[in-house]
Amino acid sequence: MTEPPPKERALAVLTELLAVLALYALAVAFIRPSGNFPLDDDTYFGLPALEFARTGHFHLTIAPHSLRAQILWGALFVRLFGPTFDALHVASMVSLAIAIVMFHATLRRLPVARGVRLFATFAFAFHPLLFWSSFTFMTEAHFVCASVIAIIAGSLAAILGVRLLFAVPAAVANPRRDAAVLLAAGYVVAHTSALCASAAYFDRYALSSAWPVAVVLAIITPKRPLWKGAIAVLLLVAAFDVVAVDEYFAWQRARWSAWYDLQRQGVPVREIDAGNEPFDLAERAYADDVHSRRRMAFGPGPRRYSIAFQPQPEMRIIGRYPFRGWLGLHQGTIFVLERISGTSSTAAHD
């Protein structure tokens, strides 16, 4: 088959890539992921990045030393946009955007039909775990970005090696296809085995090892129009991603507003149970030793004030913070509660 002229081919490739990036940008605009607060385990990666941007020195708290590159990347955005978690979340969005570009470039160099390539790139960008993590400063978006770059660099090296090893072209039917499949499949097997051996193959950690499966599936998918059902499912998943993350930020803003308001009223941090993220940000990240951190992994224990999704026994409601999600179809409330009897148990963490 004769390939289209380079100019037309480049324009078509650029158009499909920009289409996926534009849809991701529209999703970001709809969600409005603003809020100067950590999400999930952001504290352990975000505080070192903020510290490095301020002082130029690494202070890794609980973060492993292997995350120095992510800390440097986050610190760059802190210097550009200010010392906030918002800046760190922008760093993750940029990492995913780069990963989308490199993933598309990987498929572009392989024998993958245009429709399949566009479908796979869209599915990659809107994978629920990857999409959600791009609005945090968790490791997933950054690691996947780095591994996609490594895959395309490795595939180029493997293609060159295959061509050098086999002097007769017929010895290898399609060096690009064969090298990419072997490299992607090998990556999945090796990384998954390592995660299983470390007892860490669960939840979002599986994402970093499983994403190259998309490369293999794209290569082996027949070159024919995609089923309408597959496109419909992909659009449904993408819509779920957007509305779910939108509500996630809605209740996070309500919860953090309640936490900060209690402190403005003079309530000590150690008298408030507001969940994992505030506890990590204000207390656990500053634990002196590993044994203290392990004890604190079970949470703060009963305290005088609590911030929760619903009223609790033996506690009275002293504040309500409403939020809306799912396109306004769901309305929820974050409750600020005060214990009626008993005292807060904070001595264990002093």
Main β-sheet description: 4 strands, mixed
Large-scale geometry: globular
Low-confidence stretches: 1-8, 167-172, 343-350
In spatial order, strands of the major sheet run: 1-2-4-3
User: Would you count the extended β strands for me?
Assistant: 4
- Proportion of helical residues: 55-70%
The ordered H/E elements are: HHHHHHHHHHHEHHEEE
Average pLDDT across residues?
A: 81
Give the structural class: alpha+beta
Distance between the termini: 73 Å
Given the structure, what is the number of helices? 13
C-alpha-based Rg, rounded: 24 Å
Characterization of this structure:
By secondary structure, the chain is α+β, with helices and mostly antiparallel strands. It has 13 helices and four strands. Strands 1-2-4-3 form a four-stranded mixed β-sheet, with helices on one face. Helix 4 packs antiparallel against helix 5 and helix 4 runs parallel beside helix 7. The longest helix has 37 residues. The chain is globular and about 75 Å long. The termini are far apart. The N terminus and C terminus are likely disordered.
Index terms:
alpha+beta, 13 helices, disordered N terminus
Give me a quick take on this structure.
The protein contains 13 helices and four strands. By secondary structure, the protein is α+β, with helices and mostly antiparallel strands. The protein has a four-stranded mixed β-sheet, covered by helices on one side.
